UniProtKB/TrEMBL annotation:
PANTHER family: TAT PATHWAY SIGNAL SEQUENCE (PTHR33365:SF11), YALI0B05434P (PTHR33365). GO terms for biological process: mycotoxin biosynthetic process. The keyword Transmembrane helix applies. Pathway: Mycotoxin biosynthesis. It comes from Ustilaginoidea virens (Rice false smut fungus). This is Tat pathway signal sequence. Pfam families: UstYa (PF11807). Belongs to the ustYa family. Keywords: Membrane, Oxidoreductase, Transmembrane, Transmembrane helix. It comes from the Eukaryota.
């Protein structure tokens, strides 16, 4: 009996391509790839969010640093930041009176004046109420403020003057306007010097200079006078030039 190949092919095709509920189907890998793909997507999103947070934190920190005042700087950024330089401390004979005579006094006075800008370090601030500042000094219709370092120099000079007057010959005491007929300092001068001692102590503590100082080269006794130590100092010439450029008067004095 001849075999019907057409019928066999048709039955085989039906068995291969028609869905048979009783025939176990071969499982594919598609069902296991979907959770993995979802995991990768979620992980990528989390990494992206983390990178954005890190970048935002970095830029906020950079922005804050650019606006924040430097050490010993002005809180409101009304005065620019000045560079820091290493400065070797040397003996400066012109800072004090060498001989107790008028020529020495005048030379020392001129030396101290060279540290003061025209205008004595006073500048005007517009709209001062917008900033974190003490009440302004009213001056010619302007809100004036003093740059601290020049006030500090003024105070130290005032203390030196009182010391120099105390060491002058007694016959010259009466010519000093800060003294009464009995040679004692008047109350106004006394209050001023008291203020300077308090003010300079606060200024020194604020500065907190941590330079390391060694042996005084002028004595064999153990001790230091600060000579030879290198300090990290702000550009004083730059500060003085800026103060002079922004002055509100042209005179200068101590």
């Amino acid at each position: 009996m001849a075999r019907d190949f057409t019928k066999d092919e048709s039955e085989r095709a039906s068995s291969e391509f028609l869905i048979d509920e009783n025939f176990p189907r071969k499982k594919t890998k598609r069902w296991s790839q979907r959770p993995f793909r979802h995991f990768c997507i979620v992980l990528g999103l989390l990494v992206g969010v983390f990178e954005l947070v890190v970048l935002e934190t970095f830029f906020v920190h950079i922005s804050w640093q650019s606006k924040s005042p430097s050490a010993l700087g002005e809180l409101n950024a009304l005065v620019p930041n000045f560079p820091i330089h290493p400065v070797l401390f040397r003996h400066d004979p012109m800072a004090t009176i060498g001989r107790n005579d008028e020529n020495s006094r005048n030379a020392t006075q001129e030396n101290w004046l060279s540290y003061i800008p025209r205008g004595n370090g006073f500048i005007a601030v517009n709209n001062a109420e917008k900033y974190t500042l003490p009440d302004p000094i009213p001056f010619r219709g302007k809100s004036a403020y003093s740059i601290a370092v020049f006030h500090q120099i003024h105070c130290l000079h005032a203390i030196m003057n009182v010391f120099n007057e105390l060491t002058r010959p007694a016959s010259k005491h009466a010519r000093d306007s800060d003294r009464g007929h009995d040679g004692h300092m008047d109350s106004h001068a006394h209050r001023h010097i008291d203020h300077c001692f308090r003010y300079l102590r606060q200024s020194l503590v604020c500065c907190g200079d941590t330079a390391l100082e060694g042996q005084d080269p002028n004595t064999k006794a153990a001790g230091t006078d600060g000579t030879g130590a290198v300090h990290m100092c702000r550009d004083f010439d730059g500060i003085r030039a800026w103060a002079e450029e922004h002055r509100i008067v042209d005179t200068k004095h101590l």
